[in-house]
Amino acid sequence: MDDKYKEVDALLGGLFPSQTLRELFDYKVQALGVSPTTAARILGVQLRALNGILNGTQKVIDITIISKLASFVQLPREKIVNLYLDGVEKHFPTSTISATKVEFIKSYFDLAALRKAGWIENITDFAHIEKRLTARLGLKSILEYRKPAVDVAFCVGTYEPKNELTRAVWIKAAQACFTEIDNLYPYDRAELVKLFPRLRWFTTNEEHGLAEVIKLLHRVGVTVVLQPSMPGLQLRGATFNHDGKPCVVVTDFVGFYPTLWFALFHELFHVLFDWDDIKLNQYHITDDENKQLSVQEREREANNFAGEYLFSREKVAQIKYHLHDDEYVTRFAADNQVHPSIIYTQCAFAMPKNRSAWILARKHSPSAGHTISQYGFALENGELIAELTKPLKSLLYA
Q1: 35: alpha, beta or left, given left = phi > 0 and alpha = psi -120 to 50?
Q2: What is the spatial order of strands in the sheet that 223-226 belongs to?
Q3: Which residue, among 385, 375, 65, 17, has the nearest Cα to 228 in the 3D structure?
Q4: pLDDT higher than 60, residue 18
Q5: Residue 139 to residue 134: CA distance in whole angstroms
Q6: What is the number of other CB atoms lying within 10 angstroms of the CB of residue 167?
Q7: What is the mean pLDDT of residues 117-131?
Q8: In whole angstroms, what is the distance from residue 89 CA to residue 60 CA?
Q9: How many CB atoms lie within 10 A of CB 163?
Q10: What is the pLDDT of residue 1?
């Protein structure tokens, strides 16, 4: 950057990006009309070694090359040295994480659970841990992390769940997804009600049905994301208030295709009938840990709603004696616009002591894994939240 721009650039917070050593070299080669091979010959260095210097991947160099490079690109040697060191630092970082951050991470994260979930690769490399967590949670620094508020809808008094740290980071991960998706549509309860007669049919499309429903719900102001559960948590789903709009998380806790749909309609019950409470209390988690009667009652009502909507008890009574006739069940499912696996699962739930019904439910239930991998937000690989949400945002805003 020319000296005349430096003062303005500082005032404006770095609008003018600094050039790398590679960019300066490429520009000079182009201006002179020579090839990189010819330039390397002029500098008296092998092209492979020169590329290592320009890219910052070669840590050991002949110092005289710096002087030759400075002359070639017509810049001070100090400038070339600094650019070279910047490149090396990018590929071989030397910075360490502060003791404050280490203590913060230990206090607010269950590292063993995060490693088991695939979020992090080990529990001792704290620079790596910070990088993974900040990427997934949409933070610039790990010190920005705050545990979510504990005022959960339907709970009476203080509820302290097991695995509190893991539960908290799962919630924050979901909230990061909502922020990144940024649903621009207002929530319209009347339009959501109008959608319901159409939604069950989408269960018949294993490949794209759930994605299409997520898109329809998005247009009425209800954001839905698929997020894996985590080891030690018995989370089935959750409904959040995010920017005054309902946001639903569905997990693959059980791992079957029909249970994804059941969890979705369970949470939509909360959106339809408990939104005022959730809006006030920020969120409601559907899990198997909370034993409070106030929560259990609402969960029973939500379960009944989801079950009746997908495949009613009346229909279960009609079909339960024909479960071993696959063709009959398939025809019955088509007539009722529902995926056959939902019939088997609903019948198994209606007959919990019938071992045969559960065997059939497992046999005929596709895995939830494919749907989750397409549009879900994995809690691994350390991808930035902006990258993780790209497939779903492409679907929603296509």
Answers
A1: beta
A2: 223-226, 245-250, 235-242, 283-287
A3: 375
A4: no
A5: 5
A6: 22
A7: 89
A8: 13
A9: 18
A10: 43
| Dist. CA 204–CA 338, nearest whole Å | 6
**Exposure class string for 371-396: b at 16+ Cβ within 10 A, else e:** bbeebbbbbeebeebeebbeebeebb
Element (H, E) at 245: strand 245-250
The neighbour count for residue 350, using CB atoms within 10 Å, is 15
Instruction: Tell me the pLDDT tens digit for each residue of 33-82.
Output: 989 899 888 888 888 888 888 888 887 888 888 888 888 888 888 888 88
CA distance 212 to 30: 50
Question: What tokens appear for 112 in the block?
Answer: 């063993």
Q: What confidence tens digit (pLDDT) does each residue in 100-114 have?
A: 999 999 999 999 999
Q: Residues 202-234: pLDDT tens digits?
A: 999 988 899 899 999 999 999 999 888 788 887
Report residue 252 as tokens: 């693959």
Instruction: Give the ranges where 144-208 is alpha helix by DSSP (H).
Output: 164-181, 189-199
Locate tokens 């079950």: which residue? 307
Alpha carbons 178 and 247: distance in angstroms, whole number: 7
The one-letter amino acid code at 100 reads T
User: What's the token pair of residue 281?
Assistant: 């209390």
Q: Could you give the CA distance from residue 376 to residue 373 in angstroms, rounded to a whole number?
A: 6
Q: Which residues pair with 285 in a beta bridge?
A: 238
Q: Which residue matches tokens 């034993």?
A: 291
Average pLDDT over all residues of the chain: 84
Q: pLDDT (tens digit, 9 = 90+) per residue, 340-366?
A: 999 999 999 999 888 899 999 999 988
